[in-house]
Amino acid sequence: VAVPEPPSAEDVGRALRLLEPLRKLINPKVYGIDNVPQRRALLVGNHTVMGMLDSPLMCAELWEHGIIVRSLGDHAHFKVPVWRDVLTACGVVDGTRAITAALMRRGEVILVYPGGGREVAKRKGEQYKLIWKERMGFARLAIEHGYPIVPFAAVGAEEAVDIVLDGDNPLLAPTRLFAEKILGSKEAMPITRGIGLTPFPRPERQYYWFGKPVPTKSMQGKQDDDAVVRALGDKAKKAVEQGMEFLLAERENDPNRSVLKRLLGPERR
Fold first, then answer.
1. At 193, is the secondary structure helix, strand, or coil?
2. β partners of residue 41
3. What CA–CA distance (Å, rounded) separates 266 from 111?
4. What is the gyration radius of the CA atoms in the chain, in angstroms?
5. What is the DSSP letter of 125?
6. Could you read off the pLDDT of 104-132 as tens digits, one per residue?
7. DSSP string spanning 24-84?
8. Which of 36, 77, 166, 233 sits at a 20 to 30 Å CA gap from 147?
9. β-strands 149-155, 207-210: how paired?
10. Contact by Cβ (8 Å): 44, 138
11. What is the average per-residue pLDDT within 44-50?
């Protein structure tokens, strides 16, 4: 299977320069990034509404620590001309089992959102809820390749927008039909409101947490044992939920949460 090469130092530098104004505005607060190895790790965590509000900024934090992460993207992304090229330049790959296995054989750092498109297309009242359904493929592959799982959590992007119409609303039926017929996706992105009545997200501070790696070497060879796979998947899920709880509590006590304090205070980038 053909797998794109990781982004070059030039690609990473260009992406960081483009993201720098946004990073200064959002000024993410990061916990536990030293838990992420520079090789052989599967990062597993929560997707926030709209997806693109937090992923680029979190990847930028990893890049600055010398960690070239390969994000597994939804298949629909790679059906959109130009956009797929942008994602590929940033290290994103089509999230198939074959490509993931190839990345693991190379020993790369991989990032996956088990909630996929459904977790991005959140409905009203689903803030910070994991919607993984029965998706345990990440755990099966981690066991097969003896890949440690690093749970992660992200908080902040859910407050950047309000969901006006979610994917269950009858008014979005044409959008759902387009997504299914053209992009092969069953999910329609919600209609959101950010600053005032505009769609532009509010500059909410974001918080990222990386937990300690969960080793899988002792399970290697048991990837076909559904009980073992589920136990590992449930352990990762529980860790991500605890990470979100930790970040929500930290945010409540953050004296620099407001955008003015971030831009004017001593924590500014």
1. strand
2. 109
3. 32
4. 18
5. T
6. 999 999 999 999 888 888 889 999 999 99
7. HHH--EEE-GGGS-SSSEEEEEPPPTTSTTTHHHHHHHHHHTT--EEEEE-GGGGGSTTHH
8. 77
9. antiparallel
10. yes
11. 89
Average pLDDT value for residue range 176-193: 76
What is the pairing mode between strands 69-73 and 109-112?
parallel
Q: Which position has the token pair 């690093």? A: 150
Express each pLDDT in 91-110 by its tens digit: 899 989 999 999 999 999 99
* Distance (Å) of CA 243 to CA 7, 31, 83, 211: 29, 10, 31, 7
Alpha helices in 121-225 (DSSP H): 137-145, 173-178
pTM of the model: 0.91
Q: Any bridge partners for residue 35, and if so which?
A: none
CB 149 within 8 A of CB 216: yes
User: Given the structure tokens 């750092």, which residue do they identify?
Assistant: 109
Q: Which amino acid is at 94?
A: D
Kindly report the three-state secondary structure assignment for every residue of 206-268: CEEEECCCECCHHHCCCCCCHHHHHHHHHHHHHHHHHHHHHHHHHHHCCCCCCHHHHHHCCCC
CB 214 within 8 A of CB 148: yes
Which strands, in side-by-side order, build the sheet including 93-94?
29-31, 207-210, 149-155, 41-45, 109-112, 69-73, 93-94
245: its two tokens: 């709880």
Q: Distance (Å, rounded) from C-alpha 98 to C-alpha 94?
A: 10
Residue 124: DSSP 8-state = T
CA 183, CA 81: separation in Å to the nearest integer?
12
Two tokens, residue 120:
């991005």
The residue behind tokens 């998947």 is 233
pLDDT in tens, 186-221: 777 888 899 988 989 999 999 999 999 999 999 999
Tokens in use for 207? 């918080």
